[in-house]
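[audit] Reproducing an earlier prediction to check determinism. Same input, same settings, fresh worker. If the tokens differ from the archived copy the diff job will pick it up downstream; this log only records the rerun itself.
[audit] input (338 residues):
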Amino acid sequence: MSKRISVWALALTATLAGCVSTVSTVLEVENKAVQPMSSKLLAEMAKKGMTAQDPILVRIFKDESELEVWKRDRSGKYALLKTFPMCRWSGKLGPKTKTGDRQAPEGFYNVSAGMLNPNSQYYLSFNLGYPNRLEKALGYTGEAIMVHGACSSSGCFALTDEGVAEIYTIAREALKGGQTAFQVQSLPFHMTPENMARNRSNPNFEFWTNIKQGYDYFEVTKREPKVSACGRHYAFNTEFDGGEPSDPLAPCPPSSSAGTGDPKVAAKQAADTRAMEAALQGKPEISEHAYLDGGMHPSFRALLKRRGAQELAKETSLTDVPISRPESALADPHKPGE
């Protein structure tokens, strides 16, 4: 009985903020938040040398409208568990900088157990932790930026209810298994030389070059990059003399190790730079993001037109669709609502 009262108290005292709202009934909270992991997913984990309790890492790609869940396997490295097509995100390519800009953020975030939200009106959700330490120091504002269901976004990343329920369960079990927090890498696109070349004139290119260092490290090593902040940017896999930098805006302090520390990563970065320069030869760059407002995975577009937004949010079959890359200039007719 006390559990029910405490849940009701939480629902009554919570306030609307960003993409978060209260839930209508205690029963709804309990059912959504504690549903067991499917036997199909457990079997897939076993086949890949994983358990439900192994740590996870999440990567989000705006332009492709995809969310990847990676899980650490018996080798100690991360392997791709599943790719989810994203139903909706708002804004354009580039980081979120202020409240009300309708931008979905880009950067590196850590999600702990307390950031899982069973009380979201958008089925289930977890808070990304925007603004992170670097973003706060830079003066970026905003709050309650979530990954949630309901296929509706105003600065968040939205999946179907079924999709976010599966991700929520995977995250819950990893955190119960002992992972303190899981890393989320929110990225504008797969950071290939071709995509970097296409967006070379974008005002966010310098920022993207910075976060690509963390992307490259994970691509090569399949290990979680250590993320620090100094000199107004991210620093990856660096051990600083005297410990972690205390001021993200101050110049980076001396370090005994700099950069990735992995020659294979350095080789990839050098090769990518050469490939990007070659791709730029005689080809136009993209100066504006092609979407009118955010994006939606192509898998959902026909369903949206045929069934409408409310039914689309409940769609379950698309959590297992084969992922195909979206066309680069699809205008999204759907306007997000809160």
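[audit] rerun output stored. Observation attached for the diff report: The first strand starts at residue 56 and ends at 61.
[audit] end
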